[in-house]
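Protocol step 4 of 6.
Sequence for Cytochrome BD ubiquinol oxidase subunit I (Cutibacterium granulosum DSM 20700) entered exactly as in the expression construct, tag removed. Do not edit the line below.
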Amino acid sequence: AIGTMVSAVFILAANSWMQNPVGATFNPQTGRAELTDFGAVLGNPVFLTTFLHTIATSYMIGGALIAGISFWHLSKVARGRHTSEISDAGEVEDVSTWRWATKFGAWVLIAAAAITAVSGDIQGKEMTKLQPMKMAAAEAAWESTSDFSVITFDTGDGTEEIGGIKIPGMLGFLANNEWGSQIQGVNDLRKHDVNAYTYTHNDGSQTELQASYASVLREKVDANNIDLAPSVGLSYWSFRLMIGLGMAGALIGLIMLIELRGGRNPRQTGWHNFWTFVTPFLPLIGISFGWIFTEMGRQPWIVTGVLPTASAVSPGVSAGSVLFSTIAYTVVYGALAVVELFLFLKTMRAGLPDVSTTDNAADGDAPLSFAY
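Step 5 output, structure tokens:
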């Protein structure tokens, strides 16, 4: 676990640098971007919030997995009977174990969800400062606004809203900690970036690397006919599915704890079986949508404000090579996923291991013991 978290530090630091390229500058002699301050990379505000957010969501999956499996076994063993009504020694031990595991998993899920929500709120505020176009796309805000979108419908071409449900002023609080304050809209930012041919933060500032590349961005944007806004629909819905699925998982964890209050145990019904099965998948799929939003919301950039995606294509790699690699990875990892799922379900159905003691006296190879 520690090794995985250390690995996550460097992976997320690199990804956060692509979102907000700090600690680097352009070297005109070599014609490339060069790292000048590794400490700035690790101190990147995007990285600091992203690391906590990502680790917390991982614990959400772990807690949901433990809670879901344990709750299913508990409903199968207890069959809805109150804990005080169970007298068989074996059943008492099984019920006690599965109750403890369910509560542990549910509390981990809920606590991790709370940390995820707090770190996500901080992330949103940093995103407003450093990637204003990404925040505008996440809220489907084509024009500057302070209203939070519960649901928004557009014309389909990513230029105009045709209707929706809004909460007045709430977006200003979520984005800027100030109720009623506005965020810049997609069309406003499009006009600014096209006219200036430079990427700036919400306050007009830039990182050193972004400022170094500002003079060459006009050529890159013109040559590739780049739209400086991401896919608004994809950003908007992936952002909401990420939040909604995470909240649904935490809510199920809370329902589990409520069902176990006062020694009560669940029955094994079709409804219980269904939502205990889907519980681990809710945060997992939510995280997947979160990464879709993270990577697609920063488009059209590979490195925000420095390197457009269209300019990052390797000229020596053909479309056929990319297709072959994609198919190969899909087949290999798909096969591994099938094997892993089979082994996982087999282990899950087996339940608790048999830890009954054996008579060592009948075993000629039993270890010697002292007697007094």
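Step 6, annotate. The CA atoms of residues 45 and 126 lie 7 Å apart.
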